[in-house]
């Protein structure tokens, strides 16, 4: 049976299995969902076994458990290691969802619900392609699976797990579906990811909240000071002001800039899709260059003082912010983290105390397009989508990808099928059914075109 017929005949089962995962609120950021993490791992173990994997098991880590499974055809054959994550982002703000985030449904030929794309839907693509290869007798490579439950909080336990289980995870290439394409009709393969550094800032002024009228003219307001300090991190040209921040940033070559310029990109449609009237960023670079090959700085959250309903004239004792910087290849996240801390301390006025806590981070990643597994993925996309995929760097970060290369010594192929409209991390996350189907077909073709002598 050819793959498209297999998908048609089995799609109701595929979706029921995916929905059984999506109903589990496996939110790694919230400790009250600890048991949901275990339940989701157990469900994935069961589904991997049913798909044809052997030796599926739950493995402990310092945090949430991992799911491991394998299918060893022959020790002499190359091995593909499939990585995915089963944790999801919190669903808030709930009131903006058009349907319940953890009650998945099909609507308008889309799968709706938290995890529809990131990463339960995309992980299911991998598992169903593997299932087809097993049942059709076409699989001629060994396949291993490692699914973690902490990706959305920076994978704090995975690095140690990789070091402890190097031999178990030994493979020739890693395949990941946790990235996106340029568009529904613009299939693309991700060839690079930015790194990440993330911090929390705490600004302390007086030893308690004060009456803003009585003391506001005499005591520094931590909210005001925090905003002033954050405004100094980027200049009017969108360039980051931290000394030595750009020391290791590699400038784009003429060839790379020409390649990016050749990518079909409708800036007006881009702005309309996200509801803005103009774009802003580092001057001297195009939008595609800025959001994939240049570093950035963002305030991810900021709070302090009274934020409830009504008014309260208070000068707060403390103010907080969570901030992050996307990094490009060659920028070491630990070095950047320290440069940021040093800079904040250098601009801290004497009338407040500032503490900066590094949260998590990771390196950037680049995959050569000459890699045999990349070529196999390219052919898979071409067969499923009817056109050769574009090779693009993406602006997101998956810090563990660089760890795979450093610890396991192997390259990762980023074969993702997400779309900007999938609204991952946001209310109304979704995944188009036609992309789900084409994704299964593309991964199937990846296996068919993967050389047996990697």
Structural topology:
Elements: H1 3-22, H2 34-51, E1 54-59, E2 66-71, E3 79-85, E4 105-107, E5 110-112, H3 120-135, E6 142-148, H4 158-164, E7 173-176, E8 188-193, E9 195-204, E10 210-211, H5 212-215, H6 222-231, H7 254-261, H8 267-274, H9 287-293, E11 296-304, E12 314-315, E13 318-327, H10 333-346, E14 353-362, E15 365-366, H11 372-385, E16 390-393, H12 399-408, E17 412-414, E18 430-432, H13 433-449
Parallel strand pairs: 3-6, 3-7, 7-17, 8-16
Antiparallel strand pairs: 1-2, 2-6, 4-5, 5-18, 8-15, 9-13, 9-14, 10-12, 11-13
Could you characterize the architecture of this molecule?
34% of the residues lie in helices and 21% in strands. The protein is an alpha+beta fold. β1 and β2 form a beta hairpin. The mean pLDDT is 95.
Tags for this model:
454 residues, four-stranded antiparallel beta sheet, 18 strands
Strand count: 18
Strands side by side in the biggest sheet:
1-2-6-3-7-17
Which structural class fits the helix and strand makeup? alpha+beta
The major sheet is characterized as: 6 strands, mixed
Shape, please?
A: globular
Low-confidence stretches: none
Query: How much beta, percentage-wise?
Result: 15-25%
Overall mean pLDDT score? 95
């Amino acid at each position: 049976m050819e793959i498209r017929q297999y998908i048609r005949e089995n799609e109701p089962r595929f979706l029921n299995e995916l929905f059984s995962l999506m109903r589990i609120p496996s939110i790694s950021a919230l400790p009250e969902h600890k048991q949901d993490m275990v339940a989701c791992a157990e469900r994935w173990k069961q589904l991997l076994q049913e798909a044809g994997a052997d030796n599926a098991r739950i493995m402990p880590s310092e945090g949430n458990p991992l799911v491991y499974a394998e299918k060893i055809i022959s020790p002499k054959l190359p091995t593909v290691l499939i990585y995915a994550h089963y944790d999801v982002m919190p669903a808030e703000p709930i009131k903006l969802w058009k349907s319940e985030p953890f009650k998945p449904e099909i609507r308008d030929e889309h799968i709706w619900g938290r995890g529809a794309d990131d990463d339960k839907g995309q992980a299911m693509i991998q598992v169903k392609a593997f299932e087809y290869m097993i049942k059709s007798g076409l699989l001629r490579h060994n396949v291993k699976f490692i699914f973690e439950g902490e990706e959305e909080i920076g994978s704090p336990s995975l690095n140690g797990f990789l070091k402890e289980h190097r031999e178990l995870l030994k493979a020739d290439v890693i395949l990941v579906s946790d990235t996106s394409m340029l568009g529904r009709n613009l299939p693309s393969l991700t060839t690079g990811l930015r790194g990440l550094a993330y911090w929390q800032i705490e600004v302390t002024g007086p030893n308690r909240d004060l009456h803003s009228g009585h003391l506001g003219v005499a005591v520094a307001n931590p909210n005001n000071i925090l905003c002033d300090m954050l405004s100094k991190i980027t200049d009017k040209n969108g360039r980051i002001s931290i000394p030595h921040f750009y020391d290791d940033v590699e400038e784009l070559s003429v060839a790379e800039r020409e390649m990016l310029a050749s990518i079909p990109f409708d800036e007006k449609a881009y702005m309309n899709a996200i509801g803005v009237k103009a774009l802003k960023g580092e001057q001297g670079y195009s939008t595609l260059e800025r959001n994939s090959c240049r570093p950035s700085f963002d305030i991810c959250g900021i709070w302090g003082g009274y934020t409830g309903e009504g008014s309260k004239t208070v000068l707060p004792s403390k103010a907080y912010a969570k901030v992050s910087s996307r990094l490009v290849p060659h920028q070491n996240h630990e070095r950047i983290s320290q440069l940021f801390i040093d800079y904040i301390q250098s601009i801290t006025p004497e009338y407040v105390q500032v503490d900066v806590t590094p949260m998590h981070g990771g390196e950037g990643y680049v995959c050569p397009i000459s890699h045999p597994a990349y070529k196999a993925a390219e052919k898979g996309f071409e067969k499923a989508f009817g056109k050769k995929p574009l090779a693009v760097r993406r602006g997101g970060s998956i810090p563990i990808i660089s760890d795979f290369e450093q610890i396991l010594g192997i390259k990762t192929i980023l074969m993702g099928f997400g779309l900007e409209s999938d609204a991952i991390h946001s209310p109304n996350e979704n995944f188009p059914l036609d992309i789900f189907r084409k994704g299964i077909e593309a991964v199937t073709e990846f296996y068919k075109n993967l050389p047996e002598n990697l």
